[in-house]
Design brief:
By secondary structure, the protein is α/β, with parallel strands linked by helices. The chain has 5 helices and 9 strands; from the N terminus they run βαβαββαβαβββαβ.
Length: 157
């Protein structure tokens, strides 16, 4: 583990500011399981960023979920009051500025509607992606809610 040097990870570091440290690992952090193994934490401590698309309004919805949880699209649709669809790679890249598999919870090109999985609040520390297959950063659940402006909800399937 070392401080971030990759340009894409440094872009996330800039969005976060000095209060956070994006770290690069030798091992891949692309999936929640990979990230947990690299960091040495549980999969539930990985704050995975999932992008959905509101069907009628075409707005991006970011769900920051515990790595061990699946998101219920039906629950999410009920919360937003609109049908939800999966976002394809082009939509994710266009709206966030990041590629699927490395979407961080901050620094998006288009501000999404943000929800944070309540299961993350059970953890003392969580780890989020930093736009590189080997980069993540630690933070508390409270910090995650604060920096994303997300609403805490139950979206687990």
């Amino acid at each position: 583990m070392k401080p971030a040097t990759n340009p894409t990870a440094l872009r996330v570091q800039a969005a976060l500011g000095e209060g956070f440290a994006v770290l690069e690992f030798e091992a891949s952090t692309r999936t929640a399981a990979d990230a947990a193994a690299a960091v040495g934490c549980t999969v539930g401590q990985i704050a995975k960023s999932l992008v959905f698309r509101m069907v009628a309004s075409d707005r991006p919805v970011l769900v920051v979920a515990a790595g061990s949880n699946r998101v219920s699209e039906a629950k999410l649709a009920a919360i937003v009051g609109e049908a939800i669809g999966r976002a394809d790679a082009a939509f994710v890249r266009e709206r966030t500025g990041f590629a699927i598999g490395g979407v961080p919870p901050v620094g998006h090109a288009v501000e999404p509607v943000v929800f944070v999985d309540e299961a993350l609040l059970d953890e003392r520390e969580v780890w989020a992606a930093a736009d590189h297959t080997h980069a993540v950063f630690p933070l508390t659940p409270g910090e995650l809610v604060r920096i994303t402006g997300g609403k805490v909800v139950s979206v687990s399937a």
